């Protein structure tokens, strides 16, 4: 297994600096994996560029550095299956930057950007996948259909991106007690029936106290508010009316007796 021991100390130092920079400020659509114990193999995930048949897919690739890097170019391979003229069925990448146009001054960032640009603009004239190259030249729609099919089947799916300030999870947004009264949401607002619907004055001087233990069909709160069940309200009113009539009749009888004495 390759290790940093296969690379010269000065190269290891330069690679460590480059990889740190790629991690802190990654190129658009590219994420590099870092293994501090082995700089000779660089892994990267490349997002399929928008507007291409590779859109909505993530493709994993690797760069293999030889012991005489950077004097010789790295070898690039796609680990994710992809239908592309310049990428062989075994994943090997064919691009001039990694061959005749290689320059020791070129860094890893430049190489990775070139590979991603290859997904935007293939070069069918130097195809490693002859079927893809021929299809691209003769029937782009058919080529794009094949490439999208491979993307849908083999490419990794990007993780959803959430905007900051998003609504919190619904399971923690509201808490409901056993009386079906919402006691608090994510904003700390208590949702209760209006005071008027409970027969309680809503003025600032009126304090609402919890109901006392019911001693019969009706009870009163600590604030003196009558707590009569709705279903007994009609009966209570009828009883009060009957009592009033009896009292009035007794008063009338007493007055009549007084008049007779006179």
TrEMBL record:
Residues 10-156 form the UBC core domain. The active site is at residue 94. GO terms for molecular function: ATP binding; ubiquitin conjugating enzyme activity. The keyword Protease does not apply. It is an enzyme of class 2 (transferase). Pfam families: UQ_con. Keywords: ATP-binding, Nucleotide-binding, Transferase, Ubl conjugation pathway. The keyword ATP-binding applies. Its EC number is 2.3.2.23. PANTHER family: UBIQUITIN-CONJUGATING ENZYME E2 (PTHR24067). Belongs to the ubiquitin-conjugating enzyme family. This is E2 ubiquitin-conjugating enzyme.
